[in-house]
Design a protein that fits this description.
Layout (H helix, E strand, L loop, with lengths): L7 E5 L4 H12 L3 E8 L17 H14 L3 E5 L1 H17 L6 H20 L4 E3 L4 E5 L5 E5 L16 H5 L1 E2 L7 H11 L20 H11 L4 H5 L4 E4 L5 E5 L22 E6 L3 E5 L6 E11 L9 E6 L7 E9 L2 E10 L7 E6 L2 E12 L9 E2 L1
Parallel strand pairs: 1-2, 1-4, 2-3, 4-7, 8-11
Antiparallel strand pairs: 5-6, 6-17, 8-9, 10-11, 12-15, 12-17, 13-14, 13-16, 14-15, 16-17, 17-18
Helix pairs in contact: 1-2, 1-6, 3-4
């Protein structure tokens, strides 16, 4: 095992190239590295042919081989119960409620960082490191700030808005200053077998990308109420004025902004613009999807407290969305109202909105509802 003077650091390792290079760079930089892989669910429960997953035996063995090659210990930590309760159960419940959850954000907030910090302390580690494409900075008072990754195409700061100052103070993002191509080149130079390993683009517990199949398996198994189960059965589809258009497959399968899979041929593109209780889908044009803002709840500010007054910022409502200029009004310590500088499409309740000033992530929250455009063209969307 590598012994060094900079301190001991626990590195979260998924078996992929990013976390592997993060661990290698820290070891080379004088840290005493301990690798850990989170077992978040039973890989044996995945359907045949599901593909790679961060909880698969292949991923665990890849992480272990990297640790052996570099010379540091590696452990597998069982978080299945915590992850199932905080992330998977919530994921199914949110779809049943007509909302679109972001499990990666929720995992970072409630499982990955808090649980790994707890284990890091037990292992005598001073810091926790991950392979996220994000960077750390300092404000004028010396407090930690969270910045976008240098590779804008791979930036993962959006998923980290739930981190607190205490967490940021003790976290390292060793590859945040690198591009993906530089990370792969570093892995090849070090001699890591995972240098060209493909990366997963799917939800980790739905590795085959079959969301509908996953929900079909899980809605009954997780004890949902009869009302929740009913949302996965056919229901009425209407236009914005309430005129019936036909039947949709179930609001539990749908999300705001969706076009395909609605089950109707109407002669022109129609999108889900709202999901109404108990099981009604409202369809409209792309223009109908435009929102003038959104209300957030479960808000976290990375500085530890909300701003004292309204502020101008940029807000990003999906991981791949372009940020838009916005006015942000803190309503309480955990709520905020966003007014976009221009209309934004497909603002889905349940998704995350991240708040930036330039490259700095100021915080974020969960979208409770979308707000109408300034012309008042339609009522707020949300449940």
């Amino acid at each position: 095992m590598i012994r060094a003077a900079r301190g001991r650091v626990v590195v979260a390792m998924s078996g992929g190239v990013d976390s592997s290079v993060a661990a290698a760079l820290l070891a080379r930089g004088g840290w005493e590295v301990v690798g850990v892989t989170m077992r978040n669910f039973c890989y044996g429960d995945l359907p045949a042919g599901s593909g790679a997953s961060c909880c698969s035996l292949e991923a665990i063995e890849d992480a272990r081989r990297v640790a052996d090659a570099i010379g540091f210990p590696h452990y597998v930590l069982d978080f299945e119960e915590d992850f199932g309760r905080a992330v998977v159960d919530d994921f199914v419940r949110e779809y049943a409620a007509g909302r679109t959850p972001n499990p990666c954000v929720r995992c970072n907030r409630l499982v990955r960082f808090p649980r790994l910090f707890s284990r890091a302390r037990a292992l005598g580690a001073d810091r926790l490191a991950t392979g996220h494409y994000a960077r750390l900075g300092r404000d004028v008072g010396g407090r930690p700030t969270l910045l976008r990754g240098a590779d804008r195409a791979k930036d993962q700061s959006y998923y980290l808005w739930g981190l607190t100052p205490r967490v940021l103070e003790r976290t390292l993002f060793p590859i945040g200053h690198l591009t993906k191509s530089q990370v792969r080149a570093a892995a090849a130079e070090i001699g890591l077998e995972v240098a060209e390993k493909p990366e997963s683009q799917e939800v980790c517990f739905v590795p085959d990308g079959d969301l509908r199949g996953f929900l079909q398996r899980e809605v009954s198994a997780r004890g949902l109420s009869a009302d929740a189960l009913a949302k996965f059965r056919p229901g009425p589809a209407v236009d914005a004025a309430g005129h019936e258009l036909g039947t949709h497959p179930g609001s539990g399968w749908l999300t705001v902004g969706q076009r395909r899979g609605v089950g109707l041929a109407l002669g022109e593109p129609r999108y889900v613009i709202e999901l109404r209780q108990p099981n009604t889908a409202v369809l409209g044009t792309r223009e109908d999807l435009a929102a003038g803002g959104c209300d957030l709840h479960e808000v976290n500010w990375t500085a530890g407290a909300p701003p004292a007054a309204e502020l101008d910022a940029e807000v990003q409502v999906r991981h791949r969305a372009e940020p838009v200029e916005a006015r942000v009004e803190p309503v309480s310590s955990t709520a905020a109202r966003i007014r976009f500088g221009r209309p934004v499409t497909a603002v889905a309740p349940g998704q995350s909105a991240a708040i930036y000033r330039g490259d700095e992530l100021l915080g974020g929250g969960v979208i409770r509802r979308a707000l109408p455009r300034s012309d008042g063209a339609r009522e707020p969307v949300g449940v």
